[in-house]
Specification:
- Helices cover about 30% and strands about 30% of the residues.
- It is built from seven helices and ten strands.
- It has helices spanning about 10-15, 40-45, 60-65, 110-120, 120-125, 140-145, 150-169; strands at about 5-10, 15-20, 30-35, 50, 55, 75-80, 85-90, 95, 100-105, 145-150.
- The radius of gyration is 16 Å and the shape is globular.
Length: about 170
């Protein structure tokens, strides 16, 4: 298999989706079935998969806010407070505005890109702006470019090796 590595922007590999928060004063928006990931949730895990969140919202809460329902297997990252926690939700999910998610296009392995984003976390952090705390905007995130193997089997092989190393550690 030829190792053909390419440099592409995040927009080339997926769609960047921002999060939102339903009104906290409306009880009907909270304690539902929709996983609602925040940077605090991401800070508590030390492995790629995330299965749930500390708070959940209702479908009504989802539709009343700028939060989006994002498919399982996407990559979610904290985009502020702080920048740089990553996970791959194993269920459909939503996020608050402290996260950005990348809904990957066909031909991209989520686990590989999870590791690639972690490897390039300092590149991502450098694009953050703000005085109280750094935040990377959707527009800045979409501009970022990373180098990776174009071949899906090669991405999967690398991801498998890295996850095996993580499990041993």
């Amino acid at each position: 298999m030829k190792d053909n590595w390419v440099t592409k922007s995040i927009l080339d590999i997926g769609d960047v989706i921002s999060g939102g928060t339903p009104s906290t004063t409306i009880n009907e928006f909270w304690d539902g079935d929709v996983v609602w990931i925040t940077p605090a949730d991401l800070s508590k895990i030390h492995f790629p998969e995330i299965k749930t969140s500390g708070k959940k919202i209702t479908l009504q809460g989802l539709s009343s806010s700028s939060a989006n329902l994002i498919p399982a297997g996407s990559i979610v990252m904290s985009s502020r407070a702080p920048i740089g926690y990553f996970a791959i939700p194993s269920c459909n999910f939503s996020t608050n505005q402290g996260c950005k998610s990348v809904k990957l296009k066909v031909g991209n392995d989520a686990l590989f890109h999870y590791y690639n984003f972690q490897f390039n976390v300092n590149v991502i952090k450098r694009r953050g702006e703000g005085t109280t705390f750094a935040e990377i905007s959707k527009k800045e995130l979409e501009k970022l470019c990373f180098t990776f193997p174009e071949s899906l089997p090669q991405q999967r092989k690398i991801a498998s090796i890295l996850s095996t190393c993580d499990e041993v550690i």
